[in-house]
Amino acid sequence: MFCPNCGTNNIENKANYCHQCGKKLNIDTKRNRKIKIITYLLPLISIIIVSVIMAVTFFFESKVNEKVIKYQDMAERAALSGEFDEALSLLDDAIAYRNNYNILQEDKKIIQSVVKFNDDLHVVEKKIMDEQFETAQKEINLLKRQVDKNQSPLYAKLTHEIEQVETSVKVGEIKEEIIKLSSINQLAEKLSTLYSLDLQEASELKQQIYTKMIMLSSTEAEKDLENKHFNQALYQVDAALQYVVNNEKLISLRDRIKEEKASFEKAQQERIDKAVLAAKQEEQLNLTKAVELTTVEIQVDKFGDAYLNGTVQNKGTETVHSIIVEFVVKNKDGVKLEDGKTNVFPNKLKPGETGEFEHVTYSAKNDAKVEIKKISWLLEEKKG
């Protein structure tokens, strides 16, 4: 019980006066009981209210934290998948709930940094496409130094992408070199430089080298084939087939070269045979029919002497010399008056040239006639 005047506690229930202030208490027992109950209930109610408020607050904060963690986790997965805009949007949603959460701000800065590095990497890739390999390599070196300072998984993925782009620079440089190479041996040497590259890039470059080998081999072989240099053409094809084994195009070209070679050699042999035959025929012609009689006449003068005049022509293909015309002079009754021979002048006749011959048969009398029995000659000796 307490005094309603001064508030003193621990007053006996049956006391009528307050031992502290001395005033009459005038409190009935029922009222005192109510006051006592209220006195105990108020703290309990306060505790309950505070507990409810704390529970609601804890529940609300827990839900908020769950959302923040969920957004953060989704943002991380999106960033690792390369969906940086989505990741940044999710982090902004998380920051809206926890704007004082420093790790969210750090994650956002990392993603923004990765976005910038990716943009720089795209610029480098454009320079690779433009074949600015030296400039691209310098910028890659700068990116590598900047990225190596960070430990985030996002930077590990970016490091891998940078390495791939750097490989593209090496590939581009090698491709540029391949274009300048102009022989199978040079291309073969270039094959040995590909072992430092990863399997896929090395495979692509090998295929480009093989394609260049096929192109060079085919082009050079076609030139040789056109000039009938069959062995050299076969060498060009076989040189490439050492590296591009069983290539159908080269095998087909090699078969074609062999067929054309065989056909050419057969035709050439036929031409040789024909030429030999023609030479023999020509020689036979020059030996037997080169010199032909073109004109001949005989005139008897008033003294009865017969003057023989005539011409011959070289209708062969070689120069002839020492031409002798053999003849018979007969009278009108067919009686032989003279069986003789005479030389043609000039002594040598080139193909197409004409020579003359003459003779006198004495005492032939009237009506003498001449008969050419034979014309003989020698061919000019061939030199070499």
Tally of separate domains: 4
Class based on secondary structure composition and strand pairing: alpha+beta
- Rg computed from alpha carbons, rounded to a whole number of angstroms: 62 Å
In helices, the fraction of residues equals 55-70%
Question: How many angstroms separate the termini?
Answer: 160 Å
Low-confidence stretches: none
Element-by-element helix/strand order:
HHHHHHHHHEEEEEEE
The number of helices is 9
* Biggest beta-sheet profile: 4 strands, antiparallel
Shape: rod-shaped
Task: Give a description of the structure.
The structure is a single chain. By secondary structure, the protein is α+β, with helices and mostly antiparallel strands. It folds into four domains: 1-100, no CATH class; 101-178; 184-263, no CATH class; 289-379, Immunoglobulins (Immunoglobulin-like, Sandwich), CATH 2.60.40.10. The chain is 59% helix and 15% strand. It has nine helices and seven strands; from the N terminus they run H-H-H-H-H-H-H-H-H-E-E-E-E-E-E-E. It has helices at residues 29-80, 84-97, 102-129, 133-147, 153-180, 184-191, 199-226, 230-241, 248-288; strands at residues 291-300, 306-314, 320-330, 336-343, 348-349, 354-361, 369-379. The strands form two sheets. Strands 3, 4, 5 and 7 form a four-stranded antiparallel sheet that branches. A hairpin with a 5-residue loop joins strand 1 (291-300) and strand 2. Helix 1 (29-80) runs antiparallel to helix 2 (84-97) and helix 6 runs antiparallel to helix 7 (199-226). The longest helix is centred in the first third of the chain and has 52 residues, at 29-80. The termini are far apart. The mean pLDDT is 81.
